[in-house]
């Protein structure tokens, strides 16, 4: 992300669970937030699966997978991200101003990096909009549910505490209105 040349940068999970055609929805949303000034007004549009909670996509998942998902949502809520319903959707669009503020300050390299992106964005007052997208479960995940869920929980606690205690610092602050 730090080396993009254009006005916007997107990341999407490699498994293809999100429809790439939904990038138009994200682009429309981010342009509303940044008022078509992607180098000046920091903004993020994130794909969200929150509208799918009571659909077959979630209902038919295994008990353990849903238990771990809700457990992570609870931890994320406790550790300060209360306005975003789906922090883990791997379909996020950033404008250039937000990329320049967030990615040079990243520390986390594991599965929980999505949450650190949002922690930094919230700390800096960057506008964020969740956008409902199409999504479907894809078999063949590289994630080991038990081990990686524990690592995500530990990384979340460590990352949040590091920001609260000043171990991780934000080097560029944006002006607040």
TrEMBL record:
Keywords: Membrane, Transmembrane, Transmembrane helix. SUPFAM superfamilies: Nucleotide-diphospho-sugar transferases. The keyword Transmembrane helix applies. It comes from the Eukaryota. The chain crosses the membrane at residues 67-84. The keyword Ligase does not apply. Signal peptide: none annotated. GO terms for cellular component: endoplasmic reticulum membrane. GO terms for molecular function: dolichyl-phosphate beta-glucosyltransferase activity. One of its GO terms (biological process) is protein N-linked glycosylation. This is Dolichyl-phosphate beta-glucosyltransferase.
């Amino acid at each position: 992300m730090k080396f993009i040349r254009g006005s916007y940068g997107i990341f999407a999970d490699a498994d293809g669970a999100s429809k790439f055609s939904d990038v138009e929805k994200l682009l429309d949303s981010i342009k509303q937030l940044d008022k078509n000034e992607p180098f000046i007004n920091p903004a993020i549009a994130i794909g969200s699966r929150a509208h799918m909670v009571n659909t077959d996509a979630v209902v038919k998942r295994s008990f353990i997978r849903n238990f771990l998902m809700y457990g992570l949502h609870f931890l994320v809520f406790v550790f300060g991200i209360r306005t975003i319903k789906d922090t883990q959707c791997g379909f996020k669009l950033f404008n250039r101003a937000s990329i320049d503020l967030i990615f040079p300050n990243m520390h986390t390299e594991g599965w929980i990096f999505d949450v650190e992106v949002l922690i930094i964005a919230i700390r800096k007052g960057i506008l964020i909009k969740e956008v409902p997208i199409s999504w479907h479960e894809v078999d063949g995940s590289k994630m080991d549910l038990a081990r990686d869920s524990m690592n995500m929980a530990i990384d979340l606690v460590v990352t949040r505490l590091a920001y609260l205690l000043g171990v991780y610092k934000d080097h560029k602050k944006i002006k607040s209105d």
